[in-house]
């Protein structure tokens, strides 16, 4: 552990032991300290502490509270076999954390190679974005769970969506260009937004985007391929939600 991390832990220990501070703040400080063993990432540690003392919540609730069977009237239970078929079609392999409904931690699926492309402050900014989006991801998962019941594909899909969104905002896949960093940032943003609106972007559509951005095609395709590869669970989630909405309209609960 580096010297800076040790200093942060001393600060967390002081916060945890200060009876004059709000209990919620002390519990979250304890969570940050305890969770370091699972990720061992000094930049995430700094990002969590920064978020905590800027008034943000970093300790999120578990999402699966009804056990494996749950309420049989919930949409995910009524249409479970169909949802599983969609998950299988997308070749998604949920993790133990997805089945258990643990709070989403975006760093858990972040490729370590992504971080090695950055230096210093840029790594910290990436982890800041991950911590901020983690909060939104858990709020979205709680909302889906209230609406449909808990399903592991919701957690897996949101985990992928917000991790890739954070990376796309903070890591540039395009090579250095004489037109400057602003050009690279804008070009990647256009490439991202194109696939965000049309997940199954075809070659002709990609060609139009390349004409608009005038970036190196190889770089754009590398970015698109990375995005598509890391959003299989998200696409499966979107398909499941779309189906649930259609089925709810066709067979509402009071007609079951």
Describe this entry's structure for a reader:
The mean pLDDT is 90. The radius of gyration is 21 Å and the shape is flat. The longest helix has 28 residues, at 121-148. Helix 1 (3-16) packs antiparallel against helix 2 (23-39), helix 5 runs antiparallel to helix 13 (232-250) and helix 10 packs across helix 12 (217-229). The protein is built from 13 helices and no strands. The protein folds into 2 domains: 1-59, no CATH class; 63-255, no CATH class. It is an all-alpha fold and 256 residues long. The chain is 68% helix and 0% strand.
Compact description:
The chain has 256 residues and is mostly helical.
Using the CA coordinates, give the radius of gyration.
21 Å
Strand count, sense and barrel status of the largest sheet are: none
Shape: flat
Helix and strand string, N-terminal first? HHHHHHHHHHHHH
Number of domains: 2
Q: What class would the helix/strand composition place it in?
A: mainly alpha
Counting DSSP H or I runs of 4 or more residues, the number of helices is 13
Distance between the termini: 58 Å
Low-confidence runs: none
Q: How many beta strands in the DSSP annotation?
A: 0
Which percent band covers the strand fraction?
under 5%
Organism: Aspergillus cavernicola
Protein name: Mating locus protein
């Amino acid at each position: 552990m580096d010297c800076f991390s040790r200093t942060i832990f001393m600060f967390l220990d002081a916060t945890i032991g200060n009876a004059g501070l709000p209990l919620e703040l002390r519990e979250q400080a304890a969570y940050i300290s305890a969770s370091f063993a699972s990720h061992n990432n000094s930049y995430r540690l700094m990002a969590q502490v920064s978020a905590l003392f800027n008034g943000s919540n970093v300790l999120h609730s578990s999402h699966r509270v009804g056990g494996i069977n749950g309420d049989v009237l919930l949409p995910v239970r009524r249409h479970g076999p169909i949802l599983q078929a969609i998950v299988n079609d997308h070749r998604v392999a949920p993790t133990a954390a997805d089945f258990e409904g643990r709070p989403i931690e975006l760093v858990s699926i972040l490729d370590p190679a992504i971080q090695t492309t950055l230096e210093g402050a840029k790594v910290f900014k990436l982890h800041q974005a991950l911590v901020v989006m983690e909060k939104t991801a858990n709020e979205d998962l709680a909302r889906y769970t209230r609406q449909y019941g808990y399903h592991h594909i919701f957690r897996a899909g949101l985990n992928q969506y917000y991790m890739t969104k954070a990376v796309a905002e903070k890591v540039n896949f395009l090579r250095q260009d004489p037109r400057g960093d602003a050009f690279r940032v804008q070009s990647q943003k256009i490439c991202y937004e194109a696939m965000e609106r049309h997940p199954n972007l075809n070659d002709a559509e990609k060609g139009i985007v390349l004409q608009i951005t005038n970036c190196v095609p190889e770089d754009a395709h590398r970015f698109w391929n990375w995005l598509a590869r890391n959003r299989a669970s998200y696409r499966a989630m979107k398909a499941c939600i779309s189906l649930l909405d259609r089925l709810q309209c066709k067979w509402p609960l009071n007609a079951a």
